Amino acid sequence: MSRLIEIQNLKKYFKTGRGMVHAVDDVTFHIEQGRTMGIVGESGCGKSTLGRMLVHLEESTGGQIIFNDEDVTQLGKNDMKKFREHAQMIFQDPYSSLDPRYTVEDSIKESLMISGKYNRTQALAKTQELMDLVGIAPRLRLSYPHELDGGRRQRVGIARALALDPEFIVCDEPVSALDVSIQAQILNLLKKLQQEHNLTYMFITHDLSVVKHISDDICVMYLGQLVETCSSHELFEKQYHPYTKALLSAIPSVDIRRKMNRIVLKGEITSPIDPKPGCRFAARCGYACEKCHEPQKLEEISPNHFVSCCRAKEINI
Amino acid sequence: MSEKKVFLQVKDLNVEYVTKQETVSAVNGVSFQLEKGKVLGLVGETGAGKTTIARSILGVLQEPPAVLKKGEILLDGRNLLKLTEEEMCSVRGEKITMIFQDPMTSLNPVMSVGKQIAEVIALHDKISKSDIRKKAEDMLETVGIPAERYDEFPHQFSGGMKQRVVIAIALACNPQLLLADEPTTALDVTIQAQVLELMQKLNQENNTTTILITHDLGVVAQMCDEVAIVYAGEIVESGTLEDIFENPVHPYTIGLFGALPKLNEDVEWLSPIDGMPPDPTNLPEGCKFSPRCPYAKEQCICSRIELKVITPGHKCRCLLEQGGN
Question: CA B145 to CA A268: how far, in whole Å?
Answer without folding.
Answer: 12
